[in-house]
Design brief:
The protein is mainly alpha-helical. 81% of the residues lie in helices and 0% in strands.
């Protein structure tokens, strides 16, 4: 029962992550409200799993990973290389996916971040003219919506957890 409730909370995070990705892509903003909601969903899910398993190891590992990501990315925000929303989102995602999903998330984040950077730097690869113009605009502004690859990697990691092994 607790496992099903935990999976339900993670499932509820998927549309929220999709919304965060879309809003970051269109407005280059990630709201605190969305990040806090993800934090609540992630903590609730991890707590349910910890109670079921009787071990708080996964929750501790997730909290440590979130803290390390926040501390590591904070200087990049201070230098204006990454947005504050991206830093907060990266700090919350480990709590959402759990310590056991960190490796999968890291690999997927690398793939999606490289794909995003490639699309932003080479917008002619894209099929539609309007989309291409928007990407060119992002390139001229020097903005890369990192919330998109972060959200996509988190969604895929959550979906992988739904697949029985």
């Amino acid at each position: 029962m607790l496992l099903a409730a935990s999976l339900l909370l993670k499932g509820l995070a998927i549309p929220l992550l999709a919304r965060i990705a879309w809003l970051d892509f269109t407005t280059q903003k990630i709201s605190n409200q969305n990040v806090l909601l993800l934090l609540c969903l992630g903590l609730g899910s991890l707590q349910l799993l910890s109670v079921q398993s009787g071990s708080w190891r996964d929750m501790g590992l997730s909290a440590l990973a979130g803290l390390l990501l926040f501390v590591a990315l904070f200087p990049f925000w201070a230098m204006r290389k990454i947005g504050a929303g991206d830093v907060k989102l990266m700090a919350v995602v480990p709590l959402l996916i759990g310590g056991s999903g960190l490796v999968v998330f890291s690999v997927l984040l690398l793939v999606f971040a490289l794909a995003t950077a490639m699309v932003v730097k080479n917008p002619l690869m894209l099929p539609q003219g309007a989309f291409r113009l928007y990407i060119q605009h992002l390139d001229r502004k020097g903005v890369v919506p990192f919330g998109v690859p972060i959200s996509l990697a988190a969604i895929c990691t959550i979906v992988f957890k739904f697949i029985p092994t």
